[in-house]
Predict the 3D structure of the following.
Amino acid sequence: MEKSYRNQLLVGIIVFLVLLAVAVVSIELIGDRSAREGEVGAELPLKIGAIYNLAGAQSSLDTPSANGAQLAVKELNAHGGIGERELQLVLYDGKTDPRAIADCARRLTDTDRVCAIIGFSDTDMVLAAAPIAAEAGTVFITSGATSPKLPGEVPEYLFLACFGDNVQAAAGADYAYEYRGLKTAYLLVDEDMEYTRLLAAYFKARYTELGGAILLEDSFTGGRANFSAQIAALKGLNPAPELLYIASGPDEIGTIVKQFRDAGITQPIFGGDAYDTPELVRIAGAETSEVYFTTHALLDEDTGTERARAFIAAYRTEYGVEPENAFAALGYDTVMLLADAIDRAGSDDSEAILQALQATKDWEGVTGSISYEQGSRIPTKGVTIVSVVNGTFTYSETVMPEKVPAP
């Protein structure tokens, strides 16, 4: 009996020691696995979302922007990423369709879990996505949508990397009235787009404040292919206006310029940054001249800054073509601006990024210097005036308007 008891005790001790050894090994394995998972977590890509219209009416502006954004990501990763984390751009095509854009925004916030979103060159497109991002607590930076009303329409989380329409319209008015001495104008606006409605209103406000007179205001609806009615109304004016200010989107402006010139209308035509598209000259013709527009930069290796020249060379190497317009540089700048904010925040937390963005001061990009001052989420930037001379975009002036209409 005593021997049997000792045997049982010995067996129990052995079992206990075996279980103890298994437990120790398990703890070590769990610790080792946790350490490995921690290392992997530190190496996970830092995801930035992007929505650009690679198809549809906005594609001639948005495709270059998307290219610029992807180029920026490539360059950042070549230099170690952000905080030694690789940067991943999760890019979706909004197809110039507000419903598709809303779906893209939800995928980026709910499924892809990006730390911020960039995109778009048009106000209506931004308004299809940015409120969804804001509801999810995600920062949205528009590279090229210029409505100064946007920060009020999407509180707290929406920033612009470009100037506002009130600034570019005022710059256009100053250039026409003060630099060119053009005192009377015809005003034509696409009434379907908020961008064009705002641009025309801001131009009118500043131009008339300077002393200019609007002889006729006319309108059209987007998608129109025939402008004979507008041409007839304009040609009926006596005296004729000294300039035409045409607030149009990128899809129609080439057609408008061609039809007006073919009808014998020779006055200078002025407009906004939607003119900054290869479609203008492609449709209007290589002889197109006396067209002036406000934009974010003229990407010219002869007259551009060192940053602009480096960007042009890198874009040409990457895509085999010159940057199509300033929107390519805006896409590039927006990624670089966001990367700088994330780096300063030391985190991919959206609130930390938001605070870092708001504190941005004198950040230098291809399209100019960016500071967000006195709580504004629209940067103060100079406006480039481009003239079209025999089908070639030519630098005319950089204008910082003395007075700007309220948003």
About this structure: The chain has two domains: 46-163+302-376, 166-295+386-399. Residues 22-41 have pLDDT under 50 and may be disordered. The chain is about 45% helix and 20% strand.
